[in-house]
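Let us practice reading a record.
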Amino acid sequence: MYILYTATGYKPIINLNLFAMTECKPKHDYHSSGPASAVYGLGFIGAVVYYIGVATSFWTGVLGFLKAIVWPAFLVYEALKSLGA
């Protein structure tokens, strides 16, 4: 209970909204992309293992790691090249 001072004196005020049930809504509306993230993650791990496995030097391994990050771009490029686009 709150007490408010007005020109006529002190008045008790009961804040009924304090105990009201409100629906909690998230600040942002994120859409789930779980399956796509899983496919990318597994592809990333596979590409890292492959590129580092065939690397002949340290810098070739670093380049392989960077290639593993962007492997979907290589996939789309090769797919479009094979389709003649």
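A brief commentary: The chain has a mean pLDDT of 78.
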